[in-house]
Design a protein that fits this description.
By secondary structure, the protein is of the alpha+beta class. 35% of the residues lie in helices and 12% in strands. The strands form two sheets. The protein has a four-stranded antiparallel β-sheet with strand order 1-3-4-5, sandwiched between helices. The chain is globular.
Length: 149
């Protein structure tokens, strides 16, 4: 498996089949992120952790979700065809039936993204195909800000 640095070098050299996007500007273009998504992300700061989720882990998920937005990765991912659930979904009541990027990050920093992967600074890779997604999800996710409602 290549590191994100090797993938980035291959992209710069033109040696890749899939489109990879360089880090986006800090402010996403107007209209890329819906007002509902923006409101949901803002509401995370006041949400109580779901049952079965450690409060410290929940705070980390919330910080990761908000950092994805503030660093511009949400706009990039949506432009590449990721769904909002791919970015911020979770199993009902905080279960691990669904694992979105924000839940998976655990404090990692995204440095590169393409249409089905997110690469982190510590060379970890998140794949959208996890558990058969996007074609055959076995669980229906809820958005982080809807957990417990």
């Amino acid at each position: 498996m290549s590191s994100w640095r090797e993938v980035a070098a291959a992209v710069m050299a033109g040696d890749t089949a899939s489109e990879v996007i360089a880090p986006p500007p800090p402010v996403p273009p107007a209209g890329v992120i819906s007002s509902a998504l923006t409101a949901g992300l803002r509401s995370l700061a006041t949400r109580v952790p779901p049952r079965r989720v450690d409060p410290a882990e929940w705070r980390c998920v919330v910080q990761d979700a908000q950092r994805l937005a503030s660093d511009g990765w949400v706009a990039t991912a949506l432009a590449l065809g990721w769904s909002e659930a791919d970015l911020f979904g979770i199993g009902r009541n905080g279960s691990d039936e669904w694992l979105s990027l924000a839940v998976w990050l655990e404090g990692r920093t995204v440095v590169l993204m393409d249409d089905h992967r997110a690469f982190t600074a510590d060379d970890a890779v998140f794949y959208l195909e996890r558990w058969g997604r996007p074609n055959t999800p076995y669980a229906v996710p809820v958005m982080l800000w809807e957990v417990g409602q």
